[in-house]
Amino acid sequence: MFPQKLTDPRAFDIAAALLEGFNRHYRLFRQASVEAKSRFEAADWHGQQRAQRERIEFYDKRVDEAVERLQHQFRAHELPMDVWHQVKLHYIGLLTNHLQPELAETFFNSVTTKILHRSYFHNDFIFVRPAISTEYLENDEPGSQPTYRAYYPTRETLRETLLRVVNNFQLALEFEDLGRDVEYVLRAMREEFGEVRLRTNFQLQVLSSLFFRNKGAYIVGKIINGFREIPFALPLLHTSRRQLYIDAALFGEDELQMLFSFARAYFLVDMEIPAAYVQFLRSLMPRKPRSEIYNALGLHKQGKNLFYRDFLYHLKHSSDHFRIAPGIKGMVMLVFDLPSYPYVFKVIKDFYPPQKDTSRELIQRKYLLVKTHDRVGRMADTLEYSNVAFPRSRFEDELVEELKHFCPSLIEEDGDDLVIKHLYIERRMIPLNIYLQEASTEQMTHAVIEYGNAIKDLVAANIFPGDMLWKNFGVTRHGKVVFYDYDEIEYLTDCNFRKVPEPRTEEEEMSGEVWYSVGPKDVFPETFGPFLLGNASVREVFMRHHADLLDPAYWQAHKERILAGHVHDVFPYDVDKRFSRLRHVHNPDQPQAAGSPALSS
């Protein structure tokens, strides 16, 4: 019975302690985002990547601190049911005028689910559904920064307005030639839209904070003209002389989707009201789930929470069954899916074949590495969950038998539920090996070129994929090739790239066995060919575009540059979008057109 009166004084104190824990978390989270601006101005690229990585760990630390406080101060695990009912009601009251209520609700869930038994995981005790609306949230305090700024140019003042848009961010560095760059933006707008008539409501709406990631800062907004709304983003980069320039103008939902891709590192953005940022970004990318937008903004726990709510909603409105995922079965992961749902579920097996020298702990560390690393648009983000209860009736019997055989330590049957104690969820893609079997000549050519580009982007990010077989890469709906099998990845700088030694005798040359010594981190790129290039058509395309991947010197050269402190540029847009084609000026700090054609700072 839900309480009709708030009678226990401990309940309010617990709710207040939980909110204090969340407020501390978000204060530190925002500070990391505020400092991104000074790191960008100082060209502190290693510091920027370190901040992106360390910020991911903030949340779990604050949750653990809150759990420890509640256990120590209130003996929280011994409290009766009616007290926890009252805690939630008090907490809702405390969030009435809060500016991040949806995040605070998720923090409440994260703390209480570490204390309460799983039988409490319903809406009476935790926020299975949100209780506080985030619509129309805005800070009304004098001097507070709005979520976005609106500009109302005429055709004659559009250039002046774009200058003001950029200057309003008050970056400490000078631009190399901002007037020139604005002319390039205007030219790109004309190429994109032609000479359109400006309607009465013509305006630019621009989010008030820059979006920082790696070596770039992005201005994000939309153009409104009549009934049309056109998303845009302007990437800002450094010249070799510590000046700034606008590198490109990106327009339309598809290009914004690439910028905010699930396969890229999270942005650092200073947001007082994250729900308002998500609402604005959703107007630019209506097909992108809110969960992925929260993830892209670095609020991955909120993204997980929303994803799970969406998943439960989908389960209620579907009737198909979970099954073993199509494709070649993995040796380390058991993968299953729900045909009507665009994600796959991955569970670490309890045992592996002899050739896989690994462990559950090591595999989890690899997945955490990917979570905290720059994914450069080539590694799918993963959502990690514990103790997920699925309806047993929705599982095919063959899948249940596989789970019980390969993952018995992670499976528990509880009444009508099948509980999986640990799993990862990833966006579903077409496995590249299957895609190549069904592809036209044109599609095959594009996919093989993309495969090589994906590997080169990973190399630029200091990642060696380990297992480079086609089956470990997937093709997205945009035709991008993305890596998704992480159990053998290594830092490039930890690998030793060697040339296969010449055989010393005829016996060694004819031997089917390896006649030379191989260390645990030794890699022989020449040996990739026989595993990858059995198809003559695939081989021809690969050798024409990516033969350097079979050369140890290619890998070693990149390793040495990274060890020397170089941070590579990888762009989240096509090279043809860059204004460098207009400047006709070679900047030695920028990547050459050869190599990856599409691609993310």
Automatic annotation (TrEMBL):
One Pfam family here: AceK_kinase
- InterPro entries this protein is in? AceK_kinase, AceK_regulatory, Isocitrate_DH_AceK
Q: Which PANTHER family match?
A: ISOCITRATE DEHYDROGENASE KINASE_PHOSPHATASE, PTHR39559
Record's protein name? Isocitrate dehydrogenase kinase/phosphatase
Kinase as UniProt keyword: yes
Q: Where in the cell is it found?
A: Cytoplasm
Assigned GO CC terms: cytoplasm
What is catalyzed by this enzyme?
A: L-seryl-[isocitrate dehydrogenase] + ATP = O-phospho-L-seryl-[isocitrate dehydrogenase] + ADP + H(+)
Record: residues binding ATP: 325-331, 346
Q: What is its EC number?
A: 2.7.11.5, 3.1.3.-
Gene that codes for this? aceK
Q: Where is the active site?
A: 381
GO MF, any single term:
[isocitrate dehydrogenase (NADP+)] kinase activity
| Lineage, opening ranks | Bacteria, Pseudomonadati, Pseudomonadota, Betaproteobacteria, Burkholderiales
Taking every annotated instance into account, which residue ranges of this chain make up the domain Isocitrate dehydrogenase kinase/phosphatase (AceK) regulatory? 15-319
* Record's function text: Bifunctional enzyme which can phosphorylate or dephosphorylate isocitrate dehydrogenase (IDH) on a specific serine residue. This is a regulatory mechanism which enables bacteria to bypass the Krebs cycle via the glyoxylate shunt in response to the source of carbon. When bacteria are grown on glucose, IDH is fully active and unphosphorylated, but when grown on acetate or ethanol, the activity of IDH declines drastically concomitant with its phosphorylation.
- A GO biological process held by the record: glyoxylate cycle
Which family does the entry's similarity section mention?
A: Belongs to the AceK family.
Question: Main site of residence?
Answer: cytoplasm
Does the keyword Transferase belong to this entry?
Answer: yes
Which UniProt keywords are listed?
Answer: ATP-binding, Cytoplasm, Glyoxylate bypass, Hydrolase, Kinase, Nucleotide-binding, Protein phosphatase, Serine/threonine-protein kinase, Transferase, Tricarboxylic acid cycle
Q: Which residues form the Isocitrate dehydrogenase kinase/phosphatase (AceK) kinase domain?
A: 320-574
